Amino acid sequence: MIKILFVCLGNICRSPTAEGIFRHKLNQAGIKDGYLENIFLDSAGTGAYHVGKNPDPRSCDIARKYGVNLEDLRARRLTRQDFSDYDYILGMDQENINHMKDMCPPMHQHKINLFMTYAENCPGITEVPDPYTGGLDGFEQVYDIIDRGSSGLLKHLYVNDLLPNKMNFPGKT
Ligand code: 4NP
What we know:
- The structure is a single chain.
- By secondary structure, the chain is an alpha/beta fold.
- The chain is about 35% helix and about 10% strand.
- Strands 2-1-3-4 form a four-stranded parallel beta sheet.
- The longest helix is centred in the last third of the chain and has 24 residues, at about 135-160.
- It binds 4-nitrophenyl phosphate.
- 4-nitrophenyl phosphate binds near residues 9, 11, 12, 13 and 50.
């Protein structure tokens, strides 16, 4: 079982979008995630402001346009237990990374990375910017950036033989 945790500040915009898009890409590749599957996804926030809430309606609306459903997700706060439970702990921006590195025991520090580390063809985009206080165009940009990051992460797992089922992987020869 491989476990991936997407992390941002509030867990209502960027990290649930990453969880939803990545789940959608997995499903398109014929791979299911969940407790009883070989891959498990979740998202969390370093802050507790929105615990228990659904994702921001602006994130939900944009995701729905692309066939990705975020409505059923619920915000939760990152815990110390997450550092031992997850294999990949992916922060949306450097502030998220700094926060996690301060919390995380030395033995699990290597699991923490910027989500965009795995993106290809995104020169100069190393972080997913916080869209919360901005306009809808910022949410559109964030969606596009996360979509590219998710494709890169999927490819990373594929080339490292970490996907449970590669039958329908896009581009497989
Ligand atoms: P997120 O966006 O970290 O992408 O979920 C934010 C959501 C809420 C707040 C900040 C960022 N806030 O300050 O309430």
